[in-house]
TrEMBL record:
It holds the Pfam family Cytochrom_C. Keywords: Cell membrane, Heme, Iron, Membrane, Metal-binding, Repeat, Signal. Residues 12-130, 172-280, 295-385 form the Cytochrome c domain. Residues 1-18 form the signal peptide. Gene3D superfamilies: Cytochrome c-like domain. It comes from the Bacteria. SUPFAM superfamilies: Cytochrome c. InterPro entries: Cyt_c-like_dom, Cyt_c-like_dom_sf, Cytochrome_c-type_DH, Membr-bd_ADH_cyt_c. The keyword Nucleus does not apply. It is found in: Cell membrane. This is Cytochrome c, mono-and diheme variants.
Length: 406
């Protein structure tokens, strides 16, 4: 009887908006749900076709496989037996329940900058997620990387936890964007090059990084291979819809847009754009393009006109929101051609969002183009119509083709 009365009282307080525990809790849960969207928790912790946040989706790292754990409130296989202190410590220090050290594939170096109020809201939300019994063996790294104690040394070298502090010289929008990019959004986890130990390279924030046989491109103001030529509206459109006048998202970024950024508030998207537009490039001048008479360019042009121009146009102009623009496109000019090689070999499915539900696709050419053919056509694309980038070699194509087969 007392339990029923309590439930009824909480329900009434929520429905009628009465001040007190239930109303506050509802607001915190909803705020926490949005934090989970900002942090894109489902990308790692929800297996395709599986229950939300039940874990089990392998993540390939340069050191071996890690499997994101079950973070539902199941007491046996999830975080149901955790306290708030356990949860906060995991996000802010990389140390979970019982002193278990986490690997930075769970981006606690970024989450450490989050405000305690946001982490508390996230905790409130995860307490209300459906509990799922799903035992996950997270650490599948080979020896010696499987020794979690090694993270003591890694943290000592690479991790200095510090909550985000606003810059009083910048606007409120800029500070909000900085908070999201560096914290919950953890953009640097993918877009910053890594050292041999897997830590972010000092002084190279958001200059592009390799992961899982993809290349996350440069997000600085570099006018050639970064976002220097993108307006704030271009950035917002890309994050909200998956497409803009320069590019159409695919691969891991398509997943991030589908599950995360397309669901962000417009004000937060504008804030991120304002912050990214203020990140300076490293000042490296654009290289000179290969001469049109280069043998690779001549061979690549013939392949392009035969296989690619129907969609991307003979001038590389593409078709807005359907086929990516290749002319003067930052991703085309990236120093690392990994993503371009992969898309040619395997094809690509564009992102689907509420704003742009159509998902144009690019077919695979790996079955009928040899390594030299792929290298030549990409070399041609990367050095035509205002583009300039290092040539792609047959060896690069061969190596990635073998890696994708594995």
């Amino acid at each position: 009887m007392k339990k029923a009365a309590l439930i009824a009282g909480l329900a009434a307080a929520t429905v009628f908006g009465a001040k007190g525990f239930a109303s506050d809790l509802f607001d915190r849960i909803e705020a926490g749900r949005y934090q989970a969207v900002l942090a894109d928790c489902s990308a790692c912790h929800t297996r395709p076709g599986g229950k939300p946040f039940a874990g089990g989706l392998p993540l390939q790292t340069p050191f071996g496989a890690l499997v994101p754990p079950n973070i539902t409130p199941d007491p046996e296989t999830g975080i149901g037996s955790w306290s708030y202190a356990d949860f906060r410590n995991a996000l802010k220090t990389g140390i979970g329940k019982g002193g278990k050290r986490l690997y930075p594939a769970m981006p606690y170096p970024a989450y450490a900058t989050m405000k305690d109020t946001d982490i508390a809201d996230l905790w409130a939300y995860f307490q209300k997620v459906e509990p799922v019994t799903n035992h996950v063996v997270s650490n599948q790294l080979p020896f010696p990387f499987s020794i979690r104690a090694s993270m003591i040394g890694w943290n000592w070298l690479n991790f200095s936890p510090k909550e985000f502090q606003p810059d009083p010289a910048k606007s409120a929008a800029w500070n909000r964007g900085a908070y999201l990019v560096n914290g919950a959004g953890h953009c640097g986890t993918c877009h910053t090059p890594k050292s041999l130990t897997g830590a972010d390279k000092s002084g190279e924030f958001l200059r592009g990084g390799s992961l899982q046989s993809w290349y996350a491109p440069n997000l600085t103001g570099d006018p050639h291979k970064g976002l220097g030529s993108w307006s704030t509206d271009d950035i917002v459109s890309y994050l909200k819809t998956g497409a803009n006048r320069f590019d159409i998202a695919s691969g891991p970024m398509a997943e991030a847009i589908t599950q995360s950024t397309s669901k962000w508030d417009d004000a937060d998207l504008q804030a991120v754009a304002a912050y990214l537009k203020d990140i300076k490039s490293d000042g490296t001048p654009a290289p000179q393009p290969l001469a049109a008479t280069d043998p690779a360019m001549a061979a690549g042009k013939a392949i392009y006109l035969d296989r690619c121009s129907a969609c991307h146009n003979s001038t590389g102009a593409g078709q807005a929101s359907l086929f990516a623009t290749l002319a003067k496109a930052p991703v085309i000019n990236s120093t690392d051609p990994t993503s371009l090689i992969r898309v040619v070999l395997q094809g690509s499915q564009a992102v689907a969002t509420t704003a742009r539900p159509t998902t144009p696709a690019m077919p695979s050419f790996g079955w009928n183009l040899g390594d030299a053919d792929v290298a030549n056509v990409l070399t041609y694309v990367r050095n035509s119509w205002g583009n300039a980038a290092p040539p792609v070699t047959p060896g690069q194509v061969k190596d990635l083709r073998a890696a994708l087969k594995r």
